[in-house]
Design goal:
6-stranded antiparallel β-sheet, elongated, 5-stranded mixed β-sheet, 10 helices
Length: 438
Amino acid sequence: NIVIETTYRVLNDRRAQLLREVASRTGIAKTAEEACAVMVTTFLSDPKDIPFALIYLVDEDGKTARLCGSTDSLKESRLSPAVIDLTEGVDDWSIAQAIQTGETQILTELETRFGNIPGSPWAEAPQEAVILPIAATGQAKVTGVLVAVASPRRRLDDLYHNFLEQIASQVSIAIANACAYEEERKRAEQLAELDRAKTAFFSNVSHEFRTPLALMLSPLEDLTSALDDRLQSDEREQLHLIQRNGLRLQKLVNTLLDFSRIEAGRVQAVYEPTDLAAYTSDLASVFRSLVERSGLALQIDCSPVSELVYVDRDMWEKIILNLISNAFKFTFEGSITVRLQQIDHGVELSVTDTGTGIAESELPKLFERFHRVSGARSRTYEGSGIGLALVQELVKLHGGSISVTSQVDRGTTFTITIPLGTAHLPSDRIQSNRTLES
C-alpha cells in the first residue's frame, strides 16, 4: 500500500484558515480593547493551534499592562491576571520582560507553573507558550503582548513560530486600525465642539449687536427725516453716511445670525407652494432702479413652471438678494441676467453677470465660510465672506445644489437647481394650506 503523509497539508490549511479569519476582522473594532476581544474570539475557532491566548495592552505611562482579551472564561485568575506591574520586571508569563526587551519569550513546563491550562482539545496538558511583543508597524515601542499557548501535540518549531508571529502581526494591525479610528473620532469630536463653540459665539455676538443697532438706527432715521431741510449738504451727507453704514452693519449681523442658526440646526423652514417664476421676478425687480442708475442693464427671464414649487419664501428671498447683490458688487459695465426655467424634475435658477469674473484657482473655495477673493475689484469693500456660504446652506435646505462658472474679465454665472415636489423635504415642515397670494 502507498501511504501519503497529509499531516502538514492539513496543518497548513488549518493555520491559513485562522490567519484569513484574523485578517478579515482587523478592521471591525473601533477601540483597541474591542480589537483585542475580537482577536481572541477568533482564536477560539482553532483551539488545536492556539489552545489558550491572552492579549495585554501597555498603559500610556508604561508602568502597567492590562488584560484586554482572553480565551479563558475565568477573569482575574492566576492564568489571566487583570493587571501586570511592569516596574517589578517579573511576572508568571514573562510579559514585563517581553515588553522591556521587545523580544519574543519562550516559556516551558507550563503545567508546573500554572497547573491545568484550559482550552486544549487534547488529553495532554500544554507545556509551551510563546510571548510575542506587539508593536505598531515601523515603530520600536511595544504597545502590547500576545500570550499564545502552543499545542501539546506539535513541536514549537520554526513553522509554528512563524505562524504565531503572523498572528501577532495581524493583532498589531487590528489594534493600530482601532487606535487610528479612535484618534480620528476624537479629532472629529474636538472639531465639532470647536464648531459648536464658534457657532454659539457668533449667535451670541449677533444678538448682542442687534439690540444696540436697533436703538441707534431708529432714532437716527427719525433725526434724518426731522432735520433734512435744516442741514447743510455736507452735514446731510455725513448723516446719511452714518445711516448707510449702520444699515450695512445691521445686514452683516443678520447674515451672521442666519448662518449661526443654520449651523446650530435651529432653522425652522416652512416650505410653501409658490409660483416661483412670479416670485423670483418680483424679488429681482427690486434691484432694477439701483442697477440701471449704475449704467447696467437688468434682464429678468423667468419662464412659468408647470407646477407650484415648494420653497421657504424668506430663504428664497435671501438666496435671490445675495446672488444679485454679489453680481452688482463686481459688475461695472454690461448687464445682470436672472433666469428661471424648468428642467427635468426640477427648477433651475441662474444669475449671470458681465463683471470682473473669478480666477479658476478661487472657484473651489468660493463657498467656504469667510472666504473672500483676494485682489478682486468691487464697488465696495463691505462683505463678511459668508454670503455665498449662506446661499449654499439655504439651497441645501431645499434639497438642491449650487454651482459656479466664471472667466476673468468676462463674468460669472451662479446656477441653482432644486427638485420639484415634496419627497425631498421634511414632511413636518410642509405648509400646504396657504394660498399663493397669502
